[in-house]
Amino acid sequence: MHFTTQTRSYRWGLLCLIAVLCTHCSQSQDMELLTINELLIAEVYSSMEEALKEPEKVYKLDLSGHKLTELPSEILELPNLQFLSIGSNKFGEFPQEILELEKLQVLYMPSCGLRALPQDMDRLKHLKHLSIPGNLIRELPPSFFRLDELKLLDIYVNLLERLPPEIKGLRSLDALDISMNPIAELPEELGELSNLRMLVVRGATRYDRSEDPEFNAAINDRYPVKKPMKVLPESITQLKKLRILDMSDNGFIRLPEDLATLQLKEIDITNTEMPLSEVERLRKAQPDAEIIAYGLD
């Protein structure tokens, strides 16, 4: 699956934001774990052959686009591995070897043909960043919501039809991106994510205008029903740390009543069904926010 330059730069901006948010995160009590910022600048090993020459020094491994159908078992010989990027491979199923990586903090698995996540996902107790866009995942297992150190969840372009109430268990979340999933309604429990700073719930419609016809066709096949969301839960006004809200390309017709309780920096309502009266109410409730509102009647 191909993404436009605009889409890629947006995702990179999301990652950079979370890196900034984690700048002052305290070091884990397990002193062998690096901070997220340290991981982002650590040396990257891009092959198993290279990594196995000095396995103790490998914190960051990138095997993206290697045409893998299974994860090499030798990965378990890397005792300090904490950052794993294995996108654009043909796994189909979630590699069980990953669950053996006790120190793993960052996992990138875009476009791997994943249909499900393992039932014992909570074995990755130090996982902080999970990025699994462009897969075929329909639901999140109960154990997933016990990942209490998870700060970034990036699961856009999947097949999720609902976000369950158990989402409240991810209390450390800084950023949640569930864009381009056929989710019609968000649970009230979303308001219990007290650390959430970024919420992205884009619909699929805008990508009909992508310059990449192959990508347009894939989205049209996957999302025959456009703009599924109509309203946000009223509990979103409990998210006192929320700064960025992207609800573009959906069917939103109104916003929660008590918007003035939020201190948003940016809100995107592009290509929604929002009437101009509701846009004006938003401007009054959030006078300091940048409001992006293209494509409204």
Question: How would you describe what is shown here?
Answer:
By secondary structure, the chain is of the alpha/beta class. It contains five helices and ten strands. It has helices at residues 5-21, 36-41, 48-51, 213-222, 276-285; strands at 60-62, 83-85, 106-108, 129-131, 152-154, 175-177, 198-200, 244-246, 266-268, 290-292. A ten-stranded parallel sheet has the order 1-2-3-4-5-6-7-8-9-10, covered by helices on one side.
Count of strand segments: 10
Q: From the 3D coordinates, which CATH architecture would you assign?
A: Alpha-Beta Horseshoe
Low-confidence parts lasting 5 or more residues at pLDDT below 50? 1-12, 23-31
The Rg value, from CA coordinates, equals 19 Å
From the 3D structure, determine the CATH topology. Answer: Leucine-rich repeat, LRR (right-handed beta-alpha superhelix)
Class per helix and strand makeup: alpha/beta
Give the neighbour order of strands across the main sheet: 1-2-3-4-5-6-7-8-9-10
Report the mean per-residue pLDDT as an integer.
Answer: 86
How far apart the termini lie comes to 32 Å
Report helical residue fraction.
10-25%
The name of the CATH superfamily reads Ribonuclease Inhibitor
Which CATH class is shown?
A: Alpha Beta
Strand content: 5-15%
Order of helices and strands: HHHEEEEEEEHEEHE
| Structural domains: how many | 1
